Amino acid sequence: MADLQRQLQALSDEHQKLETELQEIVQAREKLESQQQENKSVQKEFNTLEDDANIYKLVGPILLKQDKRDAVMAVDGRLDFIEKEISRIEKQINDIQEQSEKMKIESPPMGASFPLAFGLDDIETTPSWRLRFPLDIQHSEVNLGHSGAE
Protein backbone atom coordinates (compact mmCIF):
# COMPACT_ATOMS: atom_id res chain seq x y z
CA MET A 1 0.00 0.00 0.00
CA ALA A 2 2.65 2.49 1.10
CA ASP A 3 4.85 1.34 -1.78
CA LEU A 4 2.13 2.22 -4.29
CA GLN A 5 1.67 5.59 -2.61
CA ARG A 6 5.41 6.31 -2.87
CA GLN A 7 5.44 5.20 -6.49
CA LEU A 8 2.48 7.44 -7.32
CA GLN A 9 4.09 10.37 -5.49
CA ALA A 10 7.36 9.86 -7.38
CA LEU A 11 5.49 9.81 -10.69
CA SER A 12 3.57 12.92 -9.71
CA ASP A 13 6.78 14.72 -8.71
CA GLU A 14 8.49 13.74 -11.97
CA HIS A 15 5.49 14.87 -14.01
CA GLN A 16 5.42 18.20 -12.17
CA LYS A 17 9.15 18.65 -12.85
CA LEU A 18 8.58 18.01 -16.56
CA GLU A 19 5.68 20.49 -16.63
CA THR A 20 7.83 23.18 -14.99
CA GLU A 21 10.68 22.52 -17.40
CA LEU A 22 8.27 22.66 -20.33
CA GLN A 23 6.90 26.02 -19.19
CA GLU A 24 10.41 27.47 -18.91
CA ILE A 25 11.37 26.23 -22.36
CA VAL A 26 8.17 27.56 -23.92
CA GLN A 27 8.88 30.97 -22.36
CA ALA A 28 12.40 30.89 -23.82
CA ARG A 29 10.95 30.05 -27.25
CA GLU A 30 8.48 32.95 -26.99
CA LYS A 31 11.33 35.33 -26.12
CA LEU A 32 13.34 34.11 -29.12
CA GLU A 33 10.33 34.48 -31.41
CA SER A 34 9.91 38.06 -30.20
CA GLN A 35 13.58 38.78 -30.93
CA GLN A 36 13.18 37.14 -34.32
CA GLN A 37 10.27 39.46 -35.17
CA GLU A 38 12.27 42.52 -34.07
CA ASN A 39 15.23 41.52 -36.22
CA LYS A 40 13.01 40.80 -39.22
CA SER A 41 11.55 44.29 -38.85
CA VAL A 42 15.07 45.75 -38.81
CA GLN A 43 15.96 43.63 -41.84
CA LYS A 44 12.92 44.97 -43.75
CA GLU A 45 13.87 48.50 -42.80
CA PHE A 46 17.42 47.95 -44.08
CA ASN A 47 16.00 46.78 -47.41
CA THR A 48 14.30 50.15 -47.90
CA LEU A 49 17.50 52.14 -47.27
CA GLU A 50 19.98 53.32 -49.87
CA ASP A 51 23.44 51.75 -49.78
CA ASP A 52 25.00 55.01 -48.56
CA ALA A 53 22.38 55.65 -45.84
CA ASN A 54 23.58 56.55 -42.36
CA ILE A 55 23.04 53.70 -39.91
CA TYR A 56 23.81 54.04 -36.23
CA LYS A 57 24.23 51.29 -33.68
CA LEU A 58 23.50 51.93 -30.01
CA VAL A 59 26.43 50.75 -27.88
CA GLY A 60 25.72 51.59 -24.26
CA PRO A 61 24.86 55.31 -24.16
CA ILE A 62 26.67 56.03 -27.45
CA LEU A 63 25.46 55.89 -31.06
CA LEU A 64 28.18 54.61 -33.38
CA LYS A 65 28.01 55.03 -37.13
CA GLN A 66 27.97 51.69 -38.93
CA ASP A 67 28.32 50.68 -42.55
CA LYS A 68 25.07 49.32 -44.03
CA ARG A 69 26.78 46.14 -45.22
CA ASP A 70 28.11 45.45 -41.70
CA ALA A 71 24.74 46.20 -40.13
CA VAL A 72 22.92 43.89 -42.57
CA MET A 73 25.44 41.12 -41.90
CA ALA A 74 25.01 41.52 -38.13
CA VAL A 75 21.20 41.33 -38.36
CA ASP A 76 21.36 38.35 -40.73
CA GLY A 77 23.75 36.60 -38.34
CA ARG A 78 21.44 37.25 -35.38
CA LEU A 79 18.46 35.91 -37.35
CA ASP A 80 20.39 32.78 -38.28
CA PHE A 81 21.39 32.23 -34.65
CA ILE A 82 17.82 32.81 -33.41
CA GLU A 83 16.39 30.36 -35.95
CA LYS A 84 18.86 27.68 -34.84
CA GLU A 85 18.00 28.31 -31.19
CA ILE A 86 14.26 28.06 -31.93
CA SER A 87 14.87 24.72 -33.69
CA ARG A 88 16.90 23.47 -30.73
CA ILE A 89 14.18 24.53 -28.29
CA GLU A 90 11.47 22.92 -30.43
CA LYS A 91 13.41 19.65 -30.18
CA GLN A 92 13.58 20.03 -26.39
CA ILE A 93 9.82 20.64 -26.25
CA ASN A 94 9.17 17.51 -28.32
CA ASP A 95 11.53 15.47 -26.11
CA ILE A 96 9.75 16.60 -22.94
CA GLN A 97 6.34 15.86 -24.44
CA GLU A 98 7.54 12.38 -25.45
CA GLN A 99 8.88 11.81 -21.92
CA SER A 100 5.54 12.86 -20.47
CA GLU A 101 3.65 10.49 -22.76
CA LYS A 102 6.06 7.68 -21.89
CA MET A 103 5.42 8.31 -18.19
CA LYS A 104 1.68 8.06 -18.75
CA ILE A 105 2.10 4.74 -20.55
CA GLU A 106 4.52 3.30 -17.97
CA SER A 107 2.57 4.43 -14.89
CA PRO A 108 1.10 1.60 -12.83
CA PRO A 109 -2.53 0.74 -13.52
CA MET A 110 -4.77 2.34 -10.94
CA GLY A 111 -7.73 -0.03 -10.94
CA ALA A 112 -9.11 -1.07 -7.56
CA SER A 113 -5.82 -0.47 -5.75
CA PHE A 114 -5.92 3.31 -6.28
CA PRO A 115 -8.43 4.07 -3.51
CA LEU A 116 -6.65 1.62 -1.21
CA ALA A 117 -3.36 3.47 -1.64
CA PHE A 118 -4.95 6.54 -0.10
CA GLY A 119 -6.84 4.83 2.71
CA LEU A 120 -10.18 4.90 0.94
CA ASP A 121 -10.89 1.21 1.35
CA ASP A 122 -14.64 1.69 1.73
CA ILE A 123 -15.07 4.02 -1.23
CA GLU A 124 -17.35 1.57 -3.05
CA THR A 125 -19.80 1.42 -0.14
CA THR A 126 -19.69 5.08 0.85
CA PRO A 127 -22.31 7.25 -0.88
CA SER A 128 -20.72 10.06 -2.85
CA TRP A 129 -22.60 12.72 -0.89
CA ARG A 130 -20.85 11.56 2.29
CA LEU A 131 -17.48 12.15 0.71
CA ARG A 132 -18.42 15.74 -0.12
CA PHE A 133 -20.08 16.93 3.09
CA PRO A 134 -18.78 17.16 6.65
CA LEU A 135 -20.30 14.77 9.20
CA ASP A 136 -22.40 17.43 10.93
CA ILE A 137 -24.26 18.18 7.69
CA GLN A 138 -24.76 14.56 6.63
CA HIS A 139 -27.41 13.77 9.21
CA SER A 140 -29.12 17.14 9.61
CA GLU A 141 -32.29 18.03 7.78
CA VAL A 142 -31.94 20.62 5.09
CA ASN A 143 -34.89 22.73 3.97
CA LEU A 144 -34.52 23.44 0.29
CA GLY A 145 -37.59 25.65 0.07
CA HIS A 146 -40.07 22.79 -0.22
CA SER A 147 -42.82 22.44 2.29
CA GLY A 148 -43.70 19.03 3.60
CA ALA A 149 -47.28 19.30 2.25
CA GLU A 150 -47.76 19.33 -1.47
From TrEMBL:
Keywords: Chaperone, Coiled coil. GO terms for biological process: chaperone-mediated protein complex assembly; protein folding. GO terms for molecular function: protein-folding chaperone binding; unfolded protein binding. CDD domains: Prefoldin_6. SUPFAM superfamilies: Prefoldin. Transmembrane segments: none annotated. Residues 1-52, 79-106 form a coiled coil. Pfam families: Prefoldin_2. One of its GO terms (cellular component) is prefoldin complex. Gene3D superfamilies: 1.10.287.370. Belongs to the prefoldin subunit beta family. This is Prefoldin subunit 6.
